[in-house]
Amino acid sequence: QHSLLGKSRRPRTAFTSQQLLELERQFKLNKYLSRPKRFEVATMLCLTETQ
């Protein structure tokens, strides 16, 4: 159905348990990360900033 709309969805990222724990911890500390902090967390977890 979504292919009829011309939009393709990117695959969902499967986070590891460790990544989820850290992402949840960061979210509890601050719901919105600055760009430098987002880069830092992504690098630490071996993810892209978008993920």
Explain what this protein looks like in three dimensions.
It is a single chain. The mean pLDDT is 87. The chain is built from two helices and no strands. Helices cover 45% and strands 0% of the residues. The protein has helices at 17-29, 35-44. It has one domain: Arc Repressor Mutant, subunit A (Orthogonal Bundle), CATH 1.10.10. By secondary structure, the chain is an all-alpha fold.
Gist of the model:
By secondary structure, the chain is an all-alpha fold.
Shape: globular
The secondary-structure element order is HH
From the alpha carbons, calculate the radius of gyration and give it in angstroms.
14 Å
The averaged pLDDT comes out at 87
Based on helices, strands and strand pairing, what is the structural class?
Answer: mainly alpha
Organism: Capitella teleta
Pfam families: Homeodomain
GO molecular function, one term: sequence-specific double-stranded DNA binding
GO cellular component, one term: nucleus
Could you give the topology of this structure?
Blueprint: H1 17-29, H2 35-44
Descriptive keywords:
mainly alpha; Arc Repressor Mutant, subunit A; 51 residues
